[in-house]
Every structure is written in structure tokens, then in C-alpha cells.
Design brief:
By secondary structure, the protein is mainly alpha-helical. The protein is built from 4 helices and 2 strands; from the N terminus they run H-H-E-H-E-H.
Length: about 110
């Protein structure tokens, strides 16, 4: 309950999650989930395999510190619902930041 401990509620969670639809990030912020994740898995098993493969085409190694990657591929310059749809199980759960096992889209998100 990190959100509750910071006096944040469900609307705050929706707003912060929705903010992932905009912008770029350095590969170094998530390559640890793509390479050498554990002794049992190369990539984080909670990531969608197809999306992880696509991220690896941009972020070639753990040492990649300079490369930028879209946080919401295909619409990173537009504030839209594509991130929420992509992170929902029916949308493929393909976000690099959200496990595909997410129970459902966040409340308050309109498709």
C-alpha cells in the first residue's frame, strides 16, 4: 500500500498510470527486466514475451545507457487510452511497466 502511505487514492493511481502514455525513457530504466532477470529466466516472466522481444530491438544490452525507448509505443506523443488498453489482459498486457497478469484496466479509464 505504497499509495495509501503517501495519501494517494485510486484517482491518483489512475492519473499516474495514465501519465505513462506520454514520453520516452532510457533503456537503463528497465533493461534489468529484459536481460539476466534471474537464474531461471532471462526476462521477467511477468512481461508479455512479444513486447519484451520488441523492447530488446531498441535496448540491445544491460549496458545500454543512452538509448531512448517509447513508454507507449506508437502513441508516445499523444495523451490517449492506448496505455491502459495495452496493459489490460484483453489488450495483451504488453506494457514494459505493467505485468500481463494485471487483473483489469484501472477504474476511471474510458476506452
Amino acid at each position: 500500500m505504497i499509495f495509501a502511505s503517501k495519501n494517494l487514492d485510486l484517482k491518483d493511481l489512475v492519473a499516474l498510470s495514465g501519465a505513462h502514455t506520454l514520453g520516452m525513457t532510457h533503456c537503463s530504466s528497465y533493461t534489468d527486466r529484459l536481460y539476466n532477470f534471474s537464474s531461471a529466466y532471462n526476462a521477467d516472466p511477468s512481461l508479455d514475451n512479444e513486447y519484451a522481444d520488441r523492447l530488446r530491438t531498441r535496448c540491445k544490452s544491460l549496458d545500454d545507457k543512452a538509448m531512448l525507448s517509447e513508454m507507449d509505443p506508437g502513441s508516445y506523443k499523444t495523451f490517449d487510452t492506448s496505455y491502459a488498453i495495452a496493459t489490460s489482459p484483453s489488450g495483451g498486457g504488453s506494457s514494459s511497466l505493467t505485468p500481463r497478469s494485471s487483473p483489469r484496466p484501472l477504474p476511471g479509464v474510458r476506452r
